[in-house]
Amino acid sequence: MTAQKPSVLFVCVHNAGRSQMAAGFLRHLAGEHIEVRSAGSMPAEQINPVAVDAMAELGIDIIAEQPKVLTTEAVQASDVVITMGCGDACPFFPGKRYEDWKLDDPAGQGLDAVRPIRDDIRSRIEQLVGELL
Fold first, then answer.
1. Over 4-45, what HEC string results?
2. pLDDT above 50: residue 1
């Protein structure tokens, strides 16, 4: 970890659901104390509207977020890299903390199916905040 504020990068394939919800939770829970990035190995055209709705139920607005392409620079600039199903597409750099969160993909799912994914992400983010701050 850096001596300044830690930085976390969330990576999933499309950067439209899981990684966006995780980034939204981390921004909400950690405020300015942790730098938050998210990206995808093959970014979608837009964020998953069901993920937006699921987060809005908890008062977290991620509607303005856009899927972003994963870059080597984003990985190098992050202390913690959390992958969510992108597998080998994620670059690896020694000295980084990597975690792979096994989460169902919310793509094509309804709100009832996305809520448990969202809640799982929230509990993981709460634990991560406790570790980093």
1. CCCEEEEEECCCCCHHHHHHHHHHHHHHHHCEEEEEECCCCC
2. no
Q: For residue 131, count other CB atoms closer than 10 A to its CB.
A: 10
Q: Which two tokens stand for residue 45?
A: 């055209």
Dump the DSSP string for 86-108: -GGGS---TT-EEEE------TT
Which string of DSSP letters, residue by residue, matches 60-96?
---TT----B--HHHHHT-SEEEEES-GGGS---TT-
Taken in order 38, 39, 40, 46, is the CA torsion positive or negative?
A: positive
Residues involved in catalysis: 12, 86, 90
CB 86 within 8 A of CB 11: yes
**Sheet with 7-12, side-by-side order of all strands:** 35-40, 7-12, 80-84, 97-100
Give, as one character, the DSSP assignment of residue 126: H
Residue 105: other Cβ atoms inside 10 A: 17
User: What average pLDDT does this structure show over 2-10?
Assistant: 84
